[in-house]
Design goal:
Helix content: 25-40%
Largest sheet: 7 strands, mixed
Oligomer: single chain
Number of helices: 11
Distance between the termini: 18 Å
Length: 357
């Protein structure tokens, strides 16, 4: 199989599979109650995620998925009627519905109309108002592969005292994010795509500016300090982002993510980024030579792991490739390839040949 669909769901490496097997086996035998021994893995995973985005570990919390994480932000802000949120028309629904849901509270959601498959700093600046309280943006757009300039957009938002939230599910771990440099206040990222881990495990980063403005919309028994005390102390919330972990977490999913992250760090995150970009740039070049209309922005600085393009009889071509065990995506009538660091140039050639058979 030539698997080039990591922007949808990634395969599990044998390392991840084996780590989950060990966890489940221990749970089935003497380690039936996982809390005494699994929290070391939880903290280790939290530390690796924090290092990946240059954040303090105490500002990382585990949630179920990207939407679940964004709802922590959407439901936690003390919105006032007339407050505005700026989104754009390229977003995946996970980064839209949590905010559209706020319309019932009088919040206005502005949808920026983009051009050329990307979101620019200038376009965002032109669409901000005095009432804009939040800009939420995917670092990499799922349908086009366009990568936003987080540092420029984050600086713009910080200068205007606007919270800046980032959906990172299409960029981490192969595209660098530095939450300090990029002035990111909130970030949410699931782990079943480029993280090559399990469904139902995700994380959020909550910066100090966001933490100051978020009121606990939901609370559970592990949201408080010393949760095993079991007395009622709802005002004693845990410090940092961990207060948003409301109960027993997906330990199986976190175990999977832990194994995957260790694999990534062994390979090297910057080396991974270079490998992914080499493959996508190779594909863009080969398609461009053949006269294919490429949707992904032309500027290499805006490239990521996703290459989106128009192709005649796209649905039939997609089905033909699938029969040849070349797996890509069909999205909104377009074809989308998403190679990861372990894919090869030879596999990209097979895709190009398969397209034009």
């Amino acid at each position: 199989m030539v698997y080039l669909n990591h922007a949808a769901v990634a395969p599990l490496s044998f390392r991840v599979r084996d780590a989950v097997d060990r966890y489940q086996t221990r749970r089935a035998l003497k380690g039936i109650e996982p809390y005494p021994w699994i929290m070391k893995t939880v903290q280790e995973t939290r530390d690796m995620l924090a290092k990946m985005i240059n954040a303090p570990a105490e500002q990382i919390a585990f949630v179920l998925n990207t939407s679940d994480g964004l709802n922590v932000l959407a439901q936690g802000i003390d919105w006032q009627p007339g407050d505005r949120i700026l989104l754009n028309d390229l977003e995946f629904p996970a980064n839209v519905y949590p905010f559209l849901n706020l319309r019932r509270r009088g919040v206005e959601v502005d949808i920026l109309q983009t051009r050329d498959g990307k979101v620019t700093t200038d376009e965002i600046a032109q669409n901000l108002t005095e009432k804009t309280k939040l800009v939420s943006l995917s670092h990499v757009q799922f349908a086009t592969g366009g990568k936003a300039d987080l540092a420029a957009i984050g600086k713009l938002c910080r200068e205007r005292n606007i919270l800046f939230a980032v959906d990172a599910i299409q960029s981490l771990p192969h595209t660098q994010i530095d939450v300090e440099r990029d002035c990111v206040d909130f970030l949410s990222c699931g782990s079943h795509k480029w993280m090559m881990s399990a469904e139902g495990a995700a994380f959020i980063y909550v910066g100090n500016r966001a933490l100051e403005r978020i009121h606990q919309a939901s609370i559970g028994w592990t949201s408080v300090e010393n949760p095993f005390d079991f007395t009622f102390r709802p005002d004693e919330l845990r410090a940092g982002a961990a207060r948003f972990e409301n109960g027993t977490m997906n330990f199986t999913g976190i175990t999977a993510l832990n194994a995957s992250l260790k694999f990534f760090y062994e390979f090297g995150l910057r080396e991974m980024e270079r490998a992914v970009l080499d493959l996508t740039n190779y594909l863009i070049d080969r398609l461009d030579r053949r006269g294919v209309e490429i949707i992904t922005p032309k500027d290499a600085r805006e490239h990521s792991g996703i290459v989106s393009f128009n192709f005649a009889d796209a649905e039939k071509v997609f089905e033909r490739l699938e029969k040849q065990n070349i797996i890509i995506s069909l999205r909104q009538g377009r074809l989308r390839a998403a190679p990861h660091f372990y894919n090869t140039e030879d596999e990209m050639r097979k895709l190009v040949v398969g397209l034009f058979e």
